[in-house]
Design goal:
This protein is α+β, with helices and mostly antiparallel strands. 54% of the residues lie in helices and 16% in strands.
């Protein structure tokens, strides 16, 4: 018997025990589904993070208020830092504008309520004031209507841009352009719709009402607002040096003493994405371990079934040996059967894993993840199926190859 005949005989044997083959392949399929599905979901979540930060550019960073130092040492009081006010933020923008593009933003309210006729949003809508560079530097796009004009930025006109979550709550299928809404008691005209951005980190990028910066300051009259600053440059290759220049300018604006620490925080815009990459690696390792344990159980079940198959076909093995089949050919035949069963289950598991993994990623990332075809994990899954087939089939196949042909022919 040559290898081609062995493969054909193995397939005939699988076909002759179709129900058992299907049930065995199903066990393998579930193991591969868990392995490839988990890894696909993790890749999908990573793509969501990449999409969230793709519009920010590689050379951008944020300057924000520094949180209070919560660590108390003996004889020391909790250290608090003053907020970045409008004067300081504007001064920084004027001083650093020749070196990079600067955007200012302020959170007017994180729990605003927007109303249109009898409908209103949940009290978790973000009302933010922005300048002319914010949309570009933060990766937003105007999906309908228009952006703010220079006149609207300068003269604090009561106009706004709405995120898709706000539109869905207030307007449903109605066109919101040129409609008027009430936000915290102030009437605003809707001039534009923000394209869906998505944010798996829970930042509410689509649950937002944007107004010109001066309009936001007007709406918050009597309150001390704090301002966030984003700086970007497309010409700088060494971002660390660029950030140090910005740090020096901001320390000058904030009048930080030479020997003191920074009274503000300075963070790269892609720092969260880079941090998440290391988390993703750990999640992938965990997913691989879980899938491996599932496949280990499946391989034990397959080994048991192959042992049963050897017992049932003892006389057949005796006949083949009496006709000249070598122990190697018998070993080869049973290994081929085990590998083919694993490959059938593996292919079925991969077909199930791709939509399941992508659905999980879409659910976790609120629809921001890209659809992933995990070619790497599909290849790994197929390789693992072959290894599982070898692991599960080697002992039954070895046992079959060592049977004495005379004893095998006598077997009832």
């Amino acid at each position: 018997m040559n290898i081609k005949e062995n493969i054909a005989e193995g397939l005939r044997s699988i076909k002759g025990n179709l129900l058992r083959t299907i049930l065995t392949a199903l066990i393998i399929s579930l193991g591969i589904t868990s392995l490839v599905g988990i890894l696909t979901a993790i890749d999908g979540i990573q793509s969501s993070v990449d999409n969230s930060f793709s519009g920010l550019g590689a050379n951008s960073f944020d300057i924000r208020n520094r949180p209070a130092n919560q660590i108390r040492r003996e004889g020391q009081k909790e250290k608090r830092f003053k907020n970045i006010d409008y004067r300081q933020a504007s001064r920084y923008k004027i001083l650093f504008a020749p070196k990079g593009k600067v955007s200012l933003k302020t959170n007017v309210s994180n729990n605003a309520i927007a109303k249109y006729l009898s409908k209103k949003t949940n009290p978790n809508t973000r009302l933010i004031g922005i300048d002319d560079n914010f949309i570009e530097l933060k990766g937003y796009k105007v999906g309908g209507g228009r952006n703010f004009s220079t006149n609207e930025f300068t003269n604090a006109v009561n106009v706004c841009l709405l995120g898709v979550d706000v539109i869905n709550q207030l307007f449903e299928k109605k066109n919101p352009i040129n409609q008027e809404i009430l936000v915290n008691g102030i009437r605003l005209k809707v001039i534009g719709i923000l394209a869906k951005k998505g944010n798996m980190m829970g930042g509410g990028d689509d649950r937002v009402v944007m107004v010109p910066l001066e309009t936001g300051r007007k709406m918050a009259v009597g309150r001390n607002l704090t301002f966030d600053i984003t700086t970007s440059s497309t010409k700088v290759e060494n971002l660390d040096n660029f950030m140090e220049e910005a740090r020096g300018v901001m320390r000058k604006v904030r009048m930080d003493p030479i020997t003191s620490e920074d009274s503000f925080s300075l963070d790269r815009s892609d720092s969260i994405a880079k941090s998440f990459e290391s988390i993703t690696s750990s999640l992938q390792l965990g997913g691989f371990v879980i899938g491996f344990i599932t496949l280990l159980g499946a391989s034990i079940a397959l080994m048991n079934i192959m042992m049963v198959s050897v017992s049932e076909r003892t006389r057949e093995i005796g006949i083949r040996k009496s006709l000249g089949a070598t122990p190697f050919r018998i070993l080869q035949q049973f290994l081929i059967e085990a590998i083919v069963i694993c490959l059938i289950g593996g292919i079925g598991g991969i077909i199930l894993a791709i939509p399941i993994g992508n659905l999980i990623a879409q659910g976790i990332s609120s629809g921001a993840a890209s659809f992933i075809i995990p070619w790497l994990w599909m290849t790994v899954g197929i390789i693992i199926c072959v290894l599982v087939g070898l692991f599960s089939g080697i002992y039954p196949a070895f046992k079959a190859s060592k049977l004495d042909p005379v004893d095998a022919l006598r077997y009832e």
